[in-house]
Amino acid sequence: MHHYAEDITFFSPFIRRVNNDPSGCIKDKGSLRAYFERALKGYPDLHFELFRYWKALIRWCYTTRALTTTSLQN
User: Fold this and answer.
1) pTM for this entry
2) Alpha-carbon dihedral of residues 66, 15, 12, 41, nearest 10 degrees?
3) b/e map of 32-67 (b: 16 or more CB within 10 Å)?
4) Strands (E), the chain
5) How many CB atoms lie within 10 A of CB 12?
6) 3-state secondary structure (DSSP) of residue 46
7) 35 neighbors 7 (Cβ within 8 angstroms)
8) Among 37, 40, 52, 67, which residue's Cβ finds the most Cβ atoms within 10 Å?
């Protein structure tokens, strides 16, 4: 979690499923930590693959792919 800013804005379609949140958005580091903890309990082999990264103004941005052998339909 050390590489995430305290005021992170994190988007993922997976948030909709794990957090039951239609916005698919998390806006602080504490909520992101809780989301990752829930996701890893439900999908213990969940891991992420770097897809793309770029510098936007003064911050680095990146996209990843979530990968798991556990069905994401649960």
Assistant:
1) 0.69
2) -20
3) beebbeebeeebeebeeeeeeeeeeeeeeeeeeeee
4) 10-11, 25-26, 47-56, 59-67
5) 18
6) coil
7) no
8) 40
Q: Is the pLDDT of residue 71 over 70?
A: no
Residues 6-64 pLDDT 10s? 999 998 888 998 999 999 999 999 999 999 999 889 888 887 787 777 787 777 777 77
DSSP structural state of residue 19: S
Amino acid of residue 58: I
Which amino acid appears at position 51 of this protein?
Answer: F
